[in-house]
Amino acid sequence: MILQEMQKAIGAYREVLRLVRRLPKDTRPYYAKYARENFVNYREIDSNDPNAIQELLQRTYNHSLWVLKKYSVDQSAADRLKNICSA
C-alpha cells in the first residue's frame, strides 16, 4: 500500500513537470523549481495515512489547474494528472 502511494506521488510529480513544459518559456524555471521544492517538502508526510497522501494529491491537481488556467493552457492537458490524483 505504501509503495503504491509513493508511486502515485512520483507519477504526479512527473506529470506536473510535463505540464510545466506547456507554460510560457519564461515561467517554466519558476514552476519547475516550485514543484520540486514542494515535492521535497512533503516527502516527510505520514505515508501510513492514505488520507494525507490523497489530500496532497488533490491539492497538486487543483493547483495545477489554477496555473494552467492562469496561462490559458487547455485544462484537458491535466487529464493524466487527474487520473493519477483521483485513483
UniProtKB/TrEMBL annotation:
Pfam families: Complex1_LYR (PF05347). It comes from the Eukaryota. Signal peptide: none annotated. CDD domains: Complex1_LYR_LYRM9. The lineage of its organism: Eukaryota, Viridiplantae, Streptophyta, Embryophyta, Tracheophyta. It comes from Datura stramonium (Jimsonweed). This is Complex 1 LYR protein domain-containing protein. PANTHER family: OS01G0342800 PROTEIN (PTHR36758). InterPro entries: Complex1_LYR_dom, Complex1_LYR_LYRM9.
